[in-house]
Design a protein that fits this description.
Layout lengths: L10 E2 L9 H7 L9 H18 L5 E6 L2 H12 L5 E6 L2 H12 L3 E6 L8 H10 L5 E5 L1 E2 L4 E2 L3 H7 L5 E5 L11 H4 L3 E3 L12 E6 L1 H8 L12 H8 L11 H17 L1 H21 L3 E2 L10 E5 L6 H12 L1 E2 L1 E2 L9 E4 L7 H14 L4
Parallel strand pairs: 1-13, 3-4, 3-5, 5-8, 8-9
Antiparallel strand pairs: 2-10, 6-7, 9-10, 11-12, 12-15, 14-15
Helix pairs in contact: 1-10, 2-10, 5-6
The chain binds pyridoxal-5'-phosphate.
The site of pyridoxal-5'-phosphate (PLP) has 14 residues, from helix 3.
Amino acid sequence: MPAKLSIEPRLLLGPGPSPVHERILEALARPTLGHLDPQFLRIMDEVSEGLRKAFGTRNRMTFPISGTGSAGMEAALANVVEPGDRVIIGVNGVFGGRLVEMAKRMGAEVVAVEAEWGSIVPPERLLEALRAHPDTRVLAVVHAETSTGVRQPLDEIGAAVSRTDTLLLVDAVTSLGGLPVEVDKIGIDVCYSGTQKCLGVPPGLAPITFSARAMDRIATRRAPCQSWYLDVNLIAAYLGEERRYHHTAPINMVYALHEGLTMVEEDGLEARWRRHAEVGAALQAAMVERGFQLFAQEGYRLPQLTSASLPGGREEGPLRKALLEQHGIEVGGGLGPAKGKIWRVGLMGSGATHQVVERLLKAIDALIPRS
Ligand SMILES: *Cc1c(COP(=O)(O)O)cnc(C)c1O
């Protein structure tokens, strides 16, 4: 084993992780505390408060799950779904598909409402499914489908679902901190995210929030949550007055998230949304000008994740490799039906700046001469 870890830095412009600011790396390197140390408990409380602001919620049960975005997904489903429950899931990409897979493993009766990759799941089709299955316990959608670059509209779904006994579950892994995620305003019951996308923190934590309605549902479960580790009732006993040991919080990652949320607050949420919107629009215009073809449905394109096929039908793989090796820039390739066909370019967190766009375009122009 070499004496020292040697890492060539990259400019991370893929679907995540996003670039991590020095301030956050410094926070990670602070002295590790015990998870019951009053200093740490205060930091944890501040993180919950910062997450409430970012999620646009007053939900008491708001905290970071120990694990990446997929652990947030698993925690969201495992707590509100029981075997035999009907769950409607919008599927227009990888992450909708992952929700289906997890819900099925939990014994749910899944109704998948599918739409083409690159399109939204039309809200009226989800609501039709809900009318056809009024016993549905949970309706789940992905707000920002990172596999395609599509932004799912939520307002109409939120308004309709809140009038029923069905809970609305939303994947906000790629939207939190980059797009408005207004949990209380929309009427979302369970919403989870990940630290390594628009929050600009390394991967490792999954912010999550549960509405009072969701907590009532959890309180009346027929059997305890099948996952002991992700059981929100057990975690609540640690986060609440009792401070009862459940599992050891990933202390230094919580420092990093604290610093990331401080940076969100300094930016101001709205200014941060605007920055992501402007920079994403600028990149998309510049890519179209260079002959790239945008993959996501017009009018529903995520600014923080641009998916596009390459100019003149060029193969994406070798150019993506050259971008990494010659220019130190990472972008993502396509998944599923878009495999081998598109690039996925993320401008998230501290990667969402005009300087970053310029650096990327310069590298693209060096690799693909403009005709
Ligand atoms: C990245 C992502 C996830 C999964 O997060 P991991 O941190 O990779 O576990 C889930 N949903 C969406 C929409 C994502 O973009």
